[in-house]
Write a structure and sequence with these properties.
Structural class: alpha/beta
Strand content: 25-35%
Number of strands: 22
Shape: globular
Helix content: 25-40%
Largest sheet: 6 strands, parallel
Strand order of the largest sheet: 3-2-1-4-5-6
Number of helices: 14
Length: 458
Amino acid sequence: MRVIICGAGQVGYGIAERLSAEHNDVSVIDTSPELIQSVRDNLDARGFVGHGAHPDMLAAAGAEEADMIIAVTLYDEVNMTACQVAHSLFNVPTKIARIRAQSYLQPHYMDLFSREHLPIDVIISPELEVGEMVLRRIALPGATDVVRFGDNKIAMVAIECMEDCPVINTPLSQLTDLFPDLPSTVVGVSREGRLFIPHSADQLVAGDLAYVVTTKDQVRRTLSLFGHDEQEATRIVIAGGGNIGLYVARTIELRQSRTKVKIIEASRHRAVAIADELRRTVVLNGSALDQKLLQEADIAEADLMVAVTNDDQVNILSSVLAKQLGCKSNLVLINNPTYHDFTDMLGIDAHVNPRTVTISRVLQHVRRGRIRAVHSIHRGAAEIIEAEALETSPLVGPELRELELPDGMRLGAIYRNGEVLKPSGTMRIKPKDRIVMFVMAKAVKQVEQLFRVSLEFF
């Protein structure tokens, strides 16, 4: 696939890194010579210094033969114009744009992005995506990652196995025997930095991070089985009143009437603006690193500190300070992946990476075949994929135990006619079944072939 990426910042670079590693033909455009030099030095991709919306730059990057343009510069208007130029002058089939300004995303304005106006096929709003991820973490405090599939009826949860976890040192096959009515499948395990797909005879050990696929209504029971019975936070302090902080607070006001929220926002102008928009949320103006202000926000009584400012260091330090002052737990927004290795030692309970969220959304449209959703985990070492089985797929027909599935692939759930089924050896996949699976990076291409529309591969 030939892909042009406009923007070589953290998100653009991350997408280019992922796509070039999978042997796609990637070109990156950015106005910064330093960022483009980094692309040329470190990636198997071409770099072009210039404006991503200018026709001559798109032509130089190969827009006439491109299959897709991904516009993720810092400016919404540049991203939208790049997609328009790619469509009008070069007829690029798939156009993806990152759009941050919420004004563009109002439901009554969505016709703006139709083919007759601004022809953008996929709109990525990192703030909304991250906001929803934060809300899922708040709702399920025992999970370190939560993603929904199958019309929101299937969930993938990442669960840390603590020393007192009831299911450690027990073969996974025994868990199925002990809880036959529990539709949960351990599809992947991260142990001491190594990610692998467990076999039925394998056991979980303390310190493991287990990736479990289950139904939406059995998530809490699954967490409890793994020893996580943490109560949902009812007193929350949010550091940062930007788009994410405002979205989280507004949504909590709508969904959870019992939850009390306070926001700390450094900009006085922004603090006044969001205070006017929110009904029950208390807005405080000042720095989240100000100990007196945190005490004024009653941080010692808070169940959770959610740090979502634009500054990773402020997020990390304010969350650490909050716990020292008595806050029970914290959830931190971290853009820079180099900080992820230090989260545990700093006392950070959970973190969200916007880059991972954006890359996952892009991969959903890069993947070939009937791929409905993709979630990248463990820095791209694996993906949780939801795909639809076609009549021509070799998966359809035989019992699952008769199939020769690729190494590095584990089925987690099957979604059929609105019902979630747990895979078993005697089950047969039917056309139009949607399959949620754990796939190691090395097996992604093989899995794509299983769900291709074309007959040429079968």
